[in-house]
Amino acid sequence: MASRKITVLPGDGIGPSIVEATQRVLDRLNCGLEYEYADVGLTALEQGRELIPQEALDAIERNGIVLKGPITTPVGEGFTSVNVTLRKEFQLFANVRPVITIPGTRARYENIDIITVRENTEGMYSGIGQTLSEDGNTAEARSVITRDESLRLVRFAFDMARRLGRQQVTVVHKANILKTTSGLFLNCAREVAEDYPDIEMNEMIVDACCMKLVMNPEQFDVIVTTNLFGDIISDLCAGLVGGLGMAPGANIGEDKALFEAVHGSAPDIAGKNIANPTAMMLAAALMLDHMQLHEPASRMRTAIRNAIFAGDRVTPDLGGHGTTTGFTDAVIERI
After folding, report:
1. Which residues form the Isopropylmalate dehydrogenase-like domain (predicted)?
2. Domain range for residue 33?
3. Which residues are part of the catalytic machinery?
């Protein structure tokens, strides 16, 4: 198998340990991957460098594929989110968050299989135009939605649904109140849906969507929505299958892609060898699929699923007494 170099951002907190665990599984799969490492976030700051050093940006530009561990953005003015910055820098316009029930996780539902596709670069979540009045009494922010970005994002979601054999796309919005911004997104979605007569399109207001996700999540297949709504809904969906420890994420652009565990860096358990690497491993499986390495991606998911179902070495968040390395061993043994 021809080798392919990817950029690895180990992150901080539990990031390095779950990234190392994931690389052990990737190496066992013999995917032909080579790794170029770069530091960002707190790790870079502690070395006296910028939050996102230029060498990290150069490595991403060179390799095009990124495997990223959790990264802490320091609290305080002057520090922008590393995640948001990377998404904007490389125009990673689509955030893909799949959740699927794995037996053994003690999740509330048994047959969840939902993909949330979230716009990644604009809208209220992008944080543009934030101002605070001099007296501290009035805060403002801007929400900008563009036609081009909405069309691109929704078309991406429908293309993905068709490629994966999905039957339905639910467009989530708040156009009844946010008539211009959310209204534009909804109108773009309707326009795109006309080109996909084989896929059912549903329209759903965001608050109703959240209620229905809690009450009857089995009705959902693919969800597509704007940035802020997608941020909230995708975490809600993670809660349906056992929490963020089970939730991978992919950030897709035209020629770059970044794959990550979407949970935080959990500094309180860093170095204790008890972090659950499942989300990071599932993110790597998404990465393999993106690289057209479908067979090892499938083997990786099956091994993870079987290791969790066995239950003897799962980490404390899944109700076990296992360690990061022990669970990783269990996955590798099943490949």
Report:
1. 5-331
2. 1-93+242-335
3. 125, 174, 207, 231, 235
